[in-house]
Specification:
Number of helices of chain B: 0
Distance between the termini of chain B: 41 Å
Radius of gyration of chain A: 13 Å
Helix content of chain B: under 10%
Strand content of chain B: over 45%
Number of strands of chain A: 11
Largest interface: A-B, 28 and 21 residues
Distance between the termini of chain A: 36 Å
Order of helices and strands of chain A: EEEEEEEEEEE
Structural class of chain A: mainly beta
Largest sheet of chain B: 6 strands, mixed
Number of helices of chain A: 0
Number of strands of chain B: 12
Order of helices and strands of chain B: EEEEEEEEEEEE
Radius of gyration of chain B: 14 Å
Oligomer: heterodimer
Structural class of chain B: mainly beta
Chain lengths: 112, 115
């Protein structure tokens, strides 16, 4: 089954404790991205990747890192999480930058 | 930059009522337009799309027409069901320059349908 898989689905952590949210797709898509969803703001892009080893900032990249060492994986790294990063995070992939995106189930992160 | 504006929610309807969720956009060039739906506890799913002016996207009884003259992409359904209760997002993708591949979303509209 074609899908985008994120882990974990739920995470509660403390300020400053490094964490990684994993994302994997099995559709051989070139384009992957991370979004955060906040009430009243819709979804905003954090980082994106057009292919292996090619990543760039989206609209709200501060406090986040990403890597793309393999085509299928695109982890999101929070080196020192802060409470303002409490949000619902989605990973998405698409065949190209012009196509519709396929989304993961989401990761609800709470930073206390 | 690009932007999408959706009608304010939440929207509450009775089953079999007519649904309209307004969406307007600002973008340079010729963006592709999408409606995504998010059911409780789930990720976003593509509901329908249109890639050029006057295209009509349709799926599961929902329709939306790409109107370049009014920069709109309003979502409609003739008869809603309880199972349509969800959050609906209008979005655009503009392939030019630094916007390549980025989806720009509206703020989302919560729809609740009562029996």
């Amino acid at each position: 089954e074609a899908q985008v898989t994120q882990n974990p689905r739920y995470l509660i952590t403390v300020t400053g404790k490094k964490l990684t949210v994993t994302c994997s797709q099995n559709m051989n898509h070139e384009y992957m991205s991370w979004y955060r969803q906040d009430p009243g703001l819709g979804l905003r892009q954090i980082y994106y990747s057009m292919n292996v080893e090619v990543t760039d900032k989206g609209d709200v990249p501060e406090g986040y890192k990403v890597s793309r060492k393999e085509k299928r994986n695109f982890p999101l790294i929070l080196e020192s999480p802060s409470p303002n990063q409490t949000s619902l995070y989605f990973c998405a992939s698409s065949p190209s930058g012009r196509s519709e995106a396929f989304f993961g189930q989401g990761t609800r992160l709470t930073v206390v | 930059g690009d932007s999408v504006t959706q009608m304010e929610g939440p929207v509450t309807l009775s089953e079999e009522a007519f649904l309209t969720i307004n969406c307007t956009y600002t973008a340079t060039g010729y963006p592709s337009l999408f409606w995504y739906v998010q059911y409780p506890g789930e990720g976003l799913q593509l509901l329908l799309k249109a890639t050029k002016a006057d295209d009509k996207g349709s799926n599961k009884g929902f329709e939306a027409t790409y109107r370049k003259e009014t920069t709109s992409f309003h979502l409609e359904k003739g008869s809603v069901q309880v199972s349509d209760s969800a959050v609906y997002f209008c979005a655009l993708s503009n392939a030019g320059g630094t916007s390549y591949g980025k989806l720009t979303f509206g703020q989302g509209t919560i729809l609740t349908v009562h029996p």
